[in-house]
Specification:
The protein is an alpha+beta fold and about 100 residues long. The chain has three helices and three strands, in the order ααββαβ. Strands 1-2-3 form a three-stranded mixed beta sheet, with helices on one face. The longest helix has 18 residues. It is elongated. About 10% of the residues are buried.
Length: about 100
Amino acid sequence: MSPINSIQHVVFTKFLTPKCPAHILVFQKSKVLFLQLELKVIDDLITSVDVTVTEDKIHGSMVAIAIKAALDISHDQIRDKVSDILARYTVKYRLEIV
């Protein structure tokens, strides 16, 4: 893991889901921006990506990722890349590829 990714990992995993509703909203928005930045790596495989974060009673938060695949790119390719990217982080997510 590179030093930058290591720092990002620490920053990302140290912020536990806050209890105050205003803090939860800020946390969710920053998580969305962070994950969108991380998914830029697969820009050549996709035409669009939409990330949303919602509260989850079991995991604290749930990330929903909707990706539109580029032409001639298999869903398995995208699923594998997303899994590789997000494996470094403690994040529960649902992936939808269209």
